[in-house]
Each structure stands twice: as C-alpha cells, then as structure tokens.
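Milestone M4 deliverable, item 7.
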Amino acid sequence: MKFLLLLAIVLLLVWLWRSGRRETSSSDQPSQPAAPPGPQEMVCCARCGVHLPHSDAVVGRIGLYCSQEHRQLAEP
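Output delivered:
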C-alpha cells in the first residue's frame, strides 16, 4: 500500500515538472512568425540595363549601376 502511495506521489511530481517545462518553453517562442521582408524598389543599371534592388545599386554621378566596374566604365 505504501508502495502505491509513493508511486502516485512520484507520478504527480513528474507530471507537475513536465507541465511547468511546457509552459516556460512555449512562452520563450514568439507567438507569431516573423513577417517576410516587404517589396523593394527595383532600378535599372545605366550601363547594361539589368534590374536590381535599389539597396544593391551603386550610385554614380550619371545614374545607378549594378557594379562598381560598370560605374567606372560609364563615368570616366
């Protein structure tokens, strides 16, 4: 009889411990997934005409370029 009481107490403690871990792990994770980045403005290279995001473009005196090499070729 004492063995069954001891087993019940151990099972209760394990259940409480696991339920406590589950609550803390779920609160650590964000509730919503991260939003994907929004659309970017696309620009055209003044030398070759390739389209690329404005954030990747190289700014020159005459216009925007896809690379430093194209800027140097177009602007002596």
